[in-house]
Design goal:
- There is one protein chain.
- 61% of the residues lie in helices and 0% in strands.
- The protein is globular, with a radius of gyration of 19 Å.
- It has 2 domains: 74 residues, 434 Repressor (Amino-terminal Domain) (Orthogonal Bundle); 39 residues, no CATH class.
- It has 141 residues and is mostly helical.
- This is Transcriptional regulator.
- It comes from Billgrantia antri.
Length: 141
């Protein structure tokens, strides 16, 4: 099978799994909401879904993050390509048992409810941005 067509099938499947209908208008809107570069056109995302082109690596990263799939799996499939794994221990160690439970409960929710929770978290995040890191002051001695 052509790698572009295989990618298009994986992209459509990932969109369905994330609760989105694999249509160009939906993909264009959701992708451009998350991508800080030049917006992708409707025709551009249609080409991804039709298996005519592959996205650039930075765009693949955004797609993968949005859809909750590893970038190499989205690009190459479960069994293909070289895999580069990143140790997850540092992040896992910093999460408390209570936070793990909250994350497990969140991940167990249906996709539609996870979207609502994500919107609530985003609203809180925008209303209460994290405090800036304190900077060391230089002394004139």
């Amino acid at each position: 099978m052509n790698e572009k067509i295989a990618f298009a099938e994986r992209l459509a499947a990932a969109m369905r799994a994330a609760g989105y209908e694999p249509r160009p208008a939906i993909l264009e809107r959701e992708f451009n909401l998350r991508y800080w570069g030049k917006p992708v056109t409707l025709q551009g995302v249609r080409r991804w879904l039709c298996g005519e082109t592959l996205p650039q690596q930075e765009k693949l990263q955004v797609l993968a993050e949005w859809l909750g799939i590893e970038p190499q799996v989205l690009r190459f499939g479960e069994g293909g390509g070289y895999r580069i794994s990143e140790p997850r221990g540092a992040w896992d160690a910093s999460v408390s048992a209570e936070e793990r439970l909250v994350l497990q409960r969140y991940l167990a929710l249906p996709v539609a409810q996870r979207k609502v929770v994500a919107q609530v978290i985003e609203a809180f995040s925008q209303a209460h941005p994290p405090a800036p890191e304190p900077t060391a002051k230089l002394r004139d001695d």
